[in-house]
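Worked example 3 (structure in, sequence out).
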């Protein structure tokens, strides 16, 4: 009986760790706040792509911070209006970037996407038309893996670098302590499984 007292917590901890690691691929581990020469994964990209959904404001601010720290010269905001009577998410994100001092010429918007698959598909033309060959993809931590799969599926000639937002109002290191955290993680895993089983795009 005593051994189970140690085995069960260890198994649960391993499951939580595996889910966290899998859902949040991060290509910038070990990088500083700004790009650095001589390190393959820490160099400047052509553009930053931020998809709306969840904590859109936190995602937007993370993308703006990356741009202002020199990780790219351009930023793409993608997302339709959550409230169809108002402006699109992408337009709202653009306005937030302008208010933060980002030049209008550096901002691209895609306003039609209501799903992750559509984010990936509908930004393809922007990326191709502007010769953005490597991009930094920004979204919430729980959403990063599925977004990566969608973007790589629709943009086979573009290098997608993952930069998950590890802390927002929906997600944190302690996600496993709340029912919502498990709901988000479980939902992502199910959608990813469907994708690999030949279902619809993630």
């Amino acid at each position: 009986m005593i051994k189970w007292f140690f085995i069960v917590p260890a198994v649960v901890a391993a499951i939580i760790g595996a889910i966290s690691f899998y859902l949040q691929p991060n290509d910038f581990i070990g990088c500083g706040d700004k790009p650095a020469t001589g390190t393959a994964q820490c160099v400047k990209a052509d553009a930053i792509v931020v998809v709306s959904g969840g904590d859109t404001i936190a995602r937007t601010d993370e993308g703006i911070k990356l741009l202002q720290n020199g990780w790219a010269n351009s930023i793409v905001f993608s997302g339709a209006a959550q409230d169809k009577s108002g402006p699109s998410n992408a337009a709202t994100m653009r306005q937030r970037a302008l208010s933060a001092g980002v030049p209008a010429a550096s901002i691209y918007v895609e306003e039609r996407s209501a799903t992750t698959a559509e984010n990936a598909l509908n930004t393809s033309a922007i990326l191709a038309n502007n010769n953005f060959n490597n991009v930094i993809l920004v979204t919430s931590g729980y959403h990063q893996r599925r977004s990566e799969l969608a973007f790589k599926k629709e943009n086979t000639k573009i290098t997608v670098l993952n930069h998950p937002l590890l802390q927002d109002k929906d997600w944190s290191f302690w996600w496993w302590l709340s029912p919502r955290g498990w709901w988000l993680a479980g939902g992502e895993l199910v959608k990813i499984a469907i994708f690999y089983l030949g279902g619809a795009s993630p």
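Notes: The radius of gyration is 18 Å. The chain has one domain: 26-172.
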